[in-house]
Here is the input.
Amino acid sequence: MVYVSNEILVTGEPYTPGLSRSYVAQRYGFAPEEIAKLGSAENPLGPSPKALVAVAGAFGELDLYPSWTAERLREKIAAKYGFKPDQVVCGTGETEVIACVIRAFAKPGDKIVMYKPCFPIYHIFAENEGRVPVYVEMGSGFEFRIDHYIETMRSSEARIAFLTNPHSPSGKLMSEADIRRVCEAAGDTLVVLDEAYIHFTETEGSLHLVRDYENLIVLRTFSKAFGLAGLRAGFGVASAERIVPLLNIKPTWNMGCAQTAGAAAALDDDDHIERTVAMIVEMRGYVAQRMSALKAFRMVPDSRSNFFLIEIMHPALDSTKVFEELLSCGVIVKDGSVSFKGLGKRYLRSDVSLQRHMDRLVDGLIEIERRVA
Ligand SMILES: Cc1ncc(COP(=O)(O)O)c(C=O)c1O
Here is the structure.
């Protein structure tokens, strides 16, 4: 076996992505455009048009090294949200910022607190880097159980504590009061607030709390509401002192000129965000109403995101069975038992998307329900 810094790099759990349209089209004989791709929480309205123009404009700079800090984007983010550029770090997707945060602020062996279930990248990266994930079970209805979270964060002497707002995979929204409670109890623990899906909550989010708490970093992505998952851009906002180690640990020229230009232009595209959020909010209501007629399945209520959990009520079904059956109907969702540690066999996560995709999902569930009745 090759020498590795940590065995888990060979034996550990790899990331399981949502399936692609082309894979399902080939396996089941659908035209790719027919498929309802509901497993990756992408923007069904596509990329910000302003970003597309800016990315094309960046091709003229492909021969030059980009700014190693993505200065233009840092400045833009800082101006938009009322910070200084030295309070911003950019990454090739939020995922890269998460990796840098873990490496910069926790040593091998240090504890990192997170909810179970949560975005799997938190524990995959923690384990790959030899850090130790500490899990806080959510309530049976995906309640945040903040007292328990705080108690675990303190008793484990965690270096880092992840929060996701709105939460993935449940879509539940944590109150600002609860976020403040965690920051106030955290002391030397760094609180990482992941706001990847914040636009869909129709709130401003909690970037402003960075002004109140030195132990807080807020992360956001261009992959979701901005529609730029393929471009790879995300960022973190914190005190300038927190950003220095992140700049030093990130791969030097991590942001290419196309990423920087596209993301900077997308930040100005309020129309695209408004169109996207309005469609998601409308379709969230639509799919909730259609799902309410089902008996074998139920929508876990109160998602404020662009996805929701489907709970399987029928005892003869489990998440892997339903996942496979939906694939054969041309519907891609996430099998909770594969994609989210601790979620078990009774849940699937589906995106909120265009009406024709929501209809295909619910029609597929109706067909599965009919077969087991
Ligand atoms: C909660 C959460 N945070 C972060 C990300 C990653 O975003 P990015 O595409 O910017 O790496 C995702 C992606 O699905 C996510 O679900």
